DNA sequence: CGTGCGATTGAGTAAGTTCAATCGGGGTGG
DNA sequence: CCACCCCGATTGAACTTACTCAATCGCACG
């Protein structure tokens, strides 16, 4: 696999990059410089598999730009989307803390600039810079809360409810009523625990009811958010 | 609410207690003593709510003995079991790392001895004893993996598959083919994203097929594990 | 510019839920 | 310590929702 360095210019740009990562937000300039020395930036084309189930990747990856899909292959053999990661997020931590093989796949959905940090180096940073460990704890805890939310939603809510809740969540994070789905509807369906057919039907139903408008390029306009939240 | 101290005897016993908690496994004797000084032990009767959604409990709780159920109330208004915690596990960390209110409930399923540690103290320990932070990371990461497993299982696998997988998991952790369900079937059903009726039918079906035997007191005997894993 | 994959729509099916009634066991109170 | 009683467990029947299979459409990536 051929990979290119990001910002071949020099260390300075790399340091700027590292400083913008939430994980290292609390570090001082000198500490940042130390981290920057060990971090290796790479640019990955769209649809690149970063690691797969069964692999024992040896690095923590930090997304600078782009989008990464985390998914599993179920016993029945089909893909189940777990989570979508974007700029500032990290992945590959599960094989670091467990020391076992990954049970999921990570693939880029767009061209993505990603920094890698060897597990050994990360371990050292966790011990010397406690704020990094605390930040990781915060992130994992939040991920856990989100995943638990997905779980109870899939167990207890019907399809309409889940679709509406997803649209409202994207709308809230984008701060707009005219949102663009970050991923394909197929992936949205998987994330919500639905088939693409069902998602398509629910969205059509919402549009018929006058609550939303469907536009090309995965753009959806929300007209009646109260109606959606009442589902 | 009235609570009693565990081991009113003295500090020494408390230190022994703390030493057995995985979270503090790596600490030296002097460090353990320091932790033990801040930890407050309590004994809770069965069916005691430790904290609820909306509350902002200010302590990390560590289970010494007993069983705790973590659950949510879904939009539809029914209880969704998220996870069961036992001796050595901790809870209440979500309100520590986020600084927001809990979105779930914690209730004892048996009489439970639980140590509390103020969030402020925990924060101090995380900074001074990095191994504690790393241990918390490991735990949260594993919980995340388990929850993701539940998620993809609920999305992709049918009821038979989930029930069989659960029986095999309990059997594996108990190291026996004659297992006792740690929780009521009602709670098992919720954990698996099923109704109690469906779980009951699946178990009856398994028994009819000769794969298991159902006994009183939630005891189940597995006769044909290969058959169960093939579902 | 072509093509392959995602999206949509339709019809039929099957799985699990819901509602209801009964049974049984373990926990609580006397 | 025992008996009562409540709640969990079980079983039955009808239903409903989302899935499956299939065919067509259209956009977007290469």
From TrEMBL, chains A, B:
UniProt keyword list: DNA-binding, Transcription, Transcription regulation
Protein origin, superkingdom: Bacteria
Occurrences of domain HTH crp-type (ranges): 157-226
CDD domains, per database record: CAP_ED (cd00038), HTH_CRP (cd00092)
PROSITE patterns documented for this protein: CNMP_BINDING_3, HTH_CRP_2
Coiled-coil ranges (or none): none
Domain Cyclic nucleotide-binding: residue ranges: 23-143
InterPro entries reported in the protein's UniProt record: cNMP-bd_dom (IPR000595), cNMP-bd_dom_sf (IPR018490), Env_Response_Regulators (IPR050397), HTH_CRP (IPR012318), RmlC-like_jellyroll (IPR014710), WH-like_DNA-bd_sf (IPR036388), WH_DNA-bd_sf (IPR036390)
Protein name (record): Crp/Fnr family transcriptional regulator
Source species: Paeniglutamicibacter antarcticus
């Amino acid at each position: 696999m051929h990979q290119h360095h990001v910002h071949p210019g020099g260390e300075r740009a790399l340091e700027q990059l590292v400083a913008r990562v939430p994980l290292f937000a609390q570090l001082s300039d000198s500490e940042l410089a130390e981290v920057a020395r060990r971090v290796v930036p790479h640019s990955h084309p769209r649809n690149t598999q970063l690691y797969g189930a069964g692999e024992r990747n040896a690095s923590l990856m930090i997304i600078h730009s782009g989008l990464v899909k985390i998914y599993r292959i179920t016993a029945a053999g089909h893909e189940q989307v777990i989570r979508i990661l974007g700029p500032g997020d990290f992945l590959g931590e599960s094989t670091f803390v467990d020391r076992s093989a990954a049970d999921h796949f990570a693939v880029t959905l767009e061209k993505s600039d990603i920094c890698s940090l060897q597990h050994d180096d990360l371990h050292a940073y966790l011990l010397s810079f406690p704020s990094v460990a605390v930040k990781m704890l915060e992130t994992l805890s939040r991920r856990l809360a989100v995943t638990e939310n997905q779980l109870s939603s899939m167990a207890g809510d019907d399809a309409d409810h889940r679709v509406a809740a997803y649209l409202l969540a994207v709308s809230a994070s984008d701060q707009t009523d005219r949102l663009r789905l970050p991923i394909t509807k197929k992936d949205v369906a998987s994330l919500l625990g639905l088939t693409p057919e069902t998602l398509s039907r629910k969205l059509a139903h919402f549009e018929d009811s006058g609550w939303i408008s469907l536009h090309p390029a995965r753009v959806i306009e929300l007209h009646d958010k109260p109606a959606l939240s009442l589902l």
